[in-house]
## 1
Amino acid sequence: MPGTPQIEARSVGKKFGKFHALQGISLGISEGEFISLLGPSGSGKTTFLTLIAGYEPVTTGKLMLEGQDMTTWSANQRGFGMVFQGYALFPHLTVAENIAFPLKVQKRSKAQIADRVAQMVAMVGLAGHEDKKPKALSGGQQQRVALARALAYEPKVLLLDEPFSALDKNLRGQMQEELRRLHRELGTTFVFVTHDQEEALALSSRIAIFNHGELQQVGTPDEVYERPANRFTAEFLGDINILSLDQQAGGIAGTAVDLPTNAAAFRHVAIRPEHMRLAAAQDGNRLPARVRDRVYLGSKSRLLLETRAGEELMLYFDNGPGMPPPDPGSELFVAWDTSDSFAV
Ligand code: ATP
């Protein structure tokens, strides 16, 4: 990352009483990034966001903004936009009044406010709804108002805490598209908390993965998915096949397969199901297995396999023209490219 990060956490820790909610978090966020904070429930994502926002003080470490120490600054001094899980709109104010609110606080002129509100309403696709109160809007529309309100005064940084968690799947997809578009158009830095792996992979320029209050890995979506730093990240980010290494036999029990070069230091080898294929007997890098179960999923079938060592594997079979998927009970070989496997 060239230059000074816009936001930087330096060894940040947070304790609630004796409980360590966050420990040793060091993370730089560049201007214009869309970074997701991803992790299971209770991993510390929201806590980290509230520390960046300035709603809670850090217990240890420092927070920097464009090279300046902002650790003790109030939320107001930081001036970041914030969109919460709920919509947190003012129920007695109309759409236009909600969006105008932060601009009034900033004492902008009436004409300026009217212009900006019209611009924001159009940007989030709510033209015609300006005079409605929040309760007359759908969940997705309310979240759009919350986004428009947070972006109205052009904050340099927008913090979003699971903004779409209350929306159904379709609406969630639409709002994700909307957010990507807004990010592209505005170039504002987005820091986005989610526990949804697919959402993080689809939206972010980088993902920071949290577990038990510690940062596990930071990287682009394909880095963290294809090259997870540890077993937690590998398992958290999607389906994964994990095979034990039998060091005495020099490989995986019962077969001859190439192993990733760093395998010697680890106990397991991991391969994503989409990188596994059914193989011919003469394929070099292969593992014998038996089909235990087959689930028809339309365009694909999911095969559950068992190796000779009794370990489970999963892979997807394309139900196109050509070979039908193998029946349960079939003995076959699976193969993968060594470069697609990693040691964990
Ligand atoms: P979720 O996805 O469920 O929101 P999260 O990763 O955002 O989870 P946090 O809300 O940051 O998790 O919470 C991290 C841990 O800190 C949890 O164990 C939580 O109970 C604890 N915690 C958070 N806020 C407080 C508080 N004000 N007082 C005491 N403990 C807290």
## 2
Amino acid sequence: MRPADHITDHFRLTEPHKEALKRLGLVTVQDLLFHFPSRYDMGGSSADIGNLVVGSEVTIVGTLQKLQTKKSWKRKIPVSEGVIQDASGKIKCMWFNQPYIAKMYAEGTTVRAVGKVTGSAGKLYLANPRLEKITLAEMEANVSGGLFGQQQEQKASMENGLVESEGTTRGPFSEKVSDEHQLFAVYPESRGVTSLWFLHAVAKVLANGVLDQIHDPIPSELLKRYHLPTLTTALVWVHTPKTLKDAEAARKRFAFEEVFLIQLERGRDRAQQRHEKSFPIEVSASEVQAFMADFPFTATPAQMHAINAILKDMKSGTPMSRLLEGDVGSGKTAVAATAAFATVRTRPAGQKFGTLQVAYMAPTEILAKQHFESFIKYFEQFPINIGLITGSGCFKFPSKVKRGGATAISRTQLLKWVQNGEIPVVIGTHALIQKSVQFKHLALVVIDEQHRFGTNQRRMLARKEDKLPHLLSMTATPIPRTLALTIYGDLDLTLLDQMPPGRKPIITEIIKPESRFKAYNKIREELEAGRQAYIICPRIDEPDPDKAFALMAKSVTAEAKRLKKEVFSDFEIDILHSKMTPAKKDEVMKKFSEHKTDILVATSVVEVGVNVPNATLIMIEGAERFGLSQLHQLRGRVVRSNHQAYCFVCPESKGEQTMARLRALVTAKNGFELAEKDLMQRGPGELSGRKQWGISDIGMEALKNLKLVEAARTEALELIKQDETLARHPMLAEALVRRTKNLHFE
Ligand code: ADP
Ligand code: MG
């Protein structure tokens, strides 16, 4: 068997199997090896079959008999059945939807079975027990078998000497798991393929010499330095660990590898950027001051600090790559506007006319329009042409017909003016990076909440071989430091860690069910004083009655109806959620921002940067269903003005844990602190947006470990310093290519 062989070359697969593997992106034998378990189950205590008790997890050893496969008449799925017998008695076993079981074992095979005793006294059975063949010799020697006998075990044990996981020193022969507790890998199940199938398939792969043909891309000095197992050992341990420590050491290795590869890629990107040229942007300090003097406020020291860093970056002829991280409302737009100002005041080198250009990309149409309007205000005293380009239309400011306003223009006209340089600032959605958009002298790209915008995307946008635009990326997404270090490894970081003065801190209250009416009274009070409110629900529609879990969660549509009927019948209520068309969403937002609606009942779609200063109150239903950092972002919707803002957090349960977690919202100083809490308390799954970051579950686990992330980063940067193009590390270069390919596949 070879790593590159197709799975179908070695396994007889049913159609549902094939489809399931395809869905999971597993094609080759190697893919199978790199499909890792999501957790490990401990087998139960070993027991005599004659003494089994209902409900206990047990490991039994006996001979397997009477194997057969039937179709269950009720559920129309295949059921394999058999009986396992030892000296003390026998018990029936049943496997649902795993017809191959009956074909895999010969009558009379001695097996170890692990599972839960089900049924009732006199009619006990094991449901879906995990099975493994064991040899007689093994039984007599009383060695814990593992799926592939002695050989592999010894190999793993010898290499074990290298892996002293932190703090513990272990001899060449690692402790063996006693017979009582056998570890079993549990794989993420997918429709059509069970965890057990993976267990058996991987066992077959491991037993067929595939490991000897797989090469470790990580330099061995690194593995030694950090006491990490080699790839071969790690693969054995991740699938068939003898101890949880081994499994952890293996996972740590893969986590290191992943973070290391991401850092290498970012580091290489960064190093290559240093060879690139960009437009040097120079403006005098007095000009910048004059521009900022017209702001209706004084910039905070944090804003000044960010602006200075950006102006300094853009002065040099090498491209800026900077990330501006600041909580919602910290004033990132003013910083971006000042960077844009410096850019449009600069002439292309050697020219006495024209200006450099700015592209500003926002994640949604609503936001793009808001930035367009903000920019018009920021540039009031220095009138320049500003364009807006979205999927549903284009606008230009100033308008020839409407003084101080913008007019709708055709896309063709807008693109023409962008191409000949007459429109120096273009704001838009993703429509901005389509091929048809050509700039004359694109010098600065500002990106709002895009998470990643690589060198290639920048180059594409500029479409000029010789110049790379400066990049200012901005985010309010609170992410933990380890994640920032990883995914933004190629960017310089500036924090806006100060809120504009005069803002009253938001009042956050946890509302218990019995004080709900008080909260409604407070909302009514605010609405009567002319303010507006958001009410956030976890679901869009009526719950699916089949799903007990969903049954409890409030839905936008039902809650809006209920509120209109029972609580706020004298106010205008509207709804907003992700299944609406962009045009409909815009219409709803427009009505809300013009105060034609008082209450907006919505899902978490309002999370991303919507700005309605008159909305001062947000009530979040089913709050425990959201991550802390997401809740923080939601409440950021209402800290937009100098009115006192309120956030009412309404959990469905009163559990002490829920309460303790939500109380962090009341005390936390900023979103980043909450993101750290989310990561540590509930795990990386809580962090929203993980799909776009392209990090696997194992890699995300690593983010809890600052030391590991820093080590991977230091080593990657050091390696890039020595070997910028990875010419001397072909296996790493190849691993990077593979990574990128896989990401695109997903
Ligand atoms: P962010 O994009 O960081 O969430 P915005 O740029 O939208 O925040 O700014 C939020 C609000 O704060 C805007 O209404 C803006 O005019 C205002 N603002 C920005 N900087 C200051 C400041 N230094 N002092 C007072 N208000 C400010
Ligand atoms: Mg913003």
